Amino acid sequence: MLFVYGGASLIANILAGRSLVKNENRFVVSFPISLGIVYFILFLMGQFTIQMAFIIFFWGILAGMANNISQYWITSVQKHQISPMDCF
Predict the structure, then answer these.
(1) What is each CA distance from 34 to 38, 66, 68, in whole angstroms?
(2) Please, which domain of life does this record's source organism belong to (predicted)?
(3) Chain centroid to CA 81: how far?
(4) Tens digits of pLDDT across the chain (88 residues)
């Protein structure tokens, strides 16, 4: 299952990069909603092994997307931040 999660995270890097370039606000706002849906399905289907493999795959995709979102936020804040040395 860990291999499925890691492989899905690799796929997510490509998908999230494309989605952030196209429409960053819509992608970032829809992310917590989709993650909540996956957690709810995870709660309902936790006892079924085969279904859990598919849920973990989508969960891995969302985890990879979360990493891209956090990195995107860090780098976009850097562009607009005022340096302390600008005051002098």
Answers:
(1) 6, 11, 15
(2) Bacteria
(3) 24
(4) 778 888 888 888 888 888 888 888 888 888 889 889 988 998 998 888 888 888 888 888 888 888 888 888 777 766 655 666 655 5
Tokens 């891209």, residue located: 68
Which residue's entry shows tokens 């709660």? 43
Task: Name, in order, each residue with C-beta under 8 angstroms of 42's C-beta and a sequence gap of 6 or more.
Answer: 52, 55, 59
Contact 46, 52 (CB under 8 A): yes
**Alpha-carbon gap, residue 37 to 60, rounded angstroms:** 14
Question: Which tokens is 35 given?
Answer: 């993650």
This prediction has a pTM of 0.73
Domain segments of the chain as ranges: 8-67
